[in-house]
Amino acid sequence: MRAPVVHHRTRRRRALRRRALWTGGEVLVTVGVVLMLLVVHQLWWTNRQARAGAERQVQALEREWGTPSRPGKTAPATDPSHLADPGDGSDDGSEDGSGDTSSSSSGGQERRAAAGTATVNTTGVHPSWSQAYAVLRIPRLGLRVPVAEGVSKGDVLNKGYVGHYKGTQQPGRAGNFALAGHRNTHGEPFRYLNRLRSGDTLTVETKAATFTYVVDKTLPQTSARDDGVIRAVPRSTVRPSYGYTDPGYYITLTTCTPEYTSRYRLVVWGKLRSMRPR
Does a cis peptide bond (omega within 30 degrees of 0) precede residue 76? Predict the structure, then answer.
């Protein structure tokens, strides 16, 4: 019987194919590991780093103001009774053609708060770009986070801070105090903003005073270019049935939605209830 003959050229081709397959497998494994490390960095490390930095900034502000630091805890409410990267009925913050959900008592509270702002410098500072100058506390979310001037990603939002829209009002002033924060990665302070409900309280503390706002309405989704939601009298230009028609003392919180995208914005509005000078 004649033995098969294997030419050297055939052997070389087989060896080259094996080497190519091995090299391709190594490349795919390396790419997979790199992608996995990038995901870990984006979803875990940036959060860890930003949260630690934001907490240090809160503590620094409290030391500057002479307020004892309370790591991991939120301050109690004063009264117990193109946007940057965020049921029905007026009571839960959904559609309301009139945009006026305040009762006579809440109107009185707003007037008393407004009267208080006339006698105190409500911010205590004139913040420069990217400067942290206030602390936002939301008890329902277990959140306390520094507020900085501007909504730059690199200088503000990616540090785990909440950013103040330049051109909107400062806390306690008539008009709209509008803020933005990341929903995912980089500290994600507004990750659970959708859990806020009508009647929840949140506070904004500055060098001069602490302001308590009450959540009033929620706009679940709007365009990233819907700048009507941060105007002095906030009202959506995309969904006009959401918002207000009368001047007041408002706070606006914005973040991306759905999670892990930046296509739309989630908006929560609140009204000033009280002001407590330092």
Answer: no
SS (H, E, C) 12-59: HHHHHHHHHHHHHHHHHHHHHHHHHHHHHHHHHHHHHHHHHHHHHHHH
Domains of the chain, by residue range, sit at 58-277
Instruction: Kindly report the length of the chain.
Output: 278
Higher pLDDT, 220 or 35: 220
Query: What whole-number distance in Å separates Cα of residue 65 and Cα of residue 4?
Result: 90
| Dist CA 22 CA 180 (whole Å) | 49
Model pTM score = 0.72
Quickly count: other Cβ atoms within 10 Å of residue 124's Cβ.
16
Tell me the catalytic residues.
182, 256, 265
What are 72-88's pLDDT values in tens digits? 433 333 332 357 654 33
The whole-angstrom separation of Cα 96 and Cα 236 is 12
Nearest to residue 156, comparing CAs of 173, 134, 177?
134
The class level of CATH for 58-277 reads: mainly beta
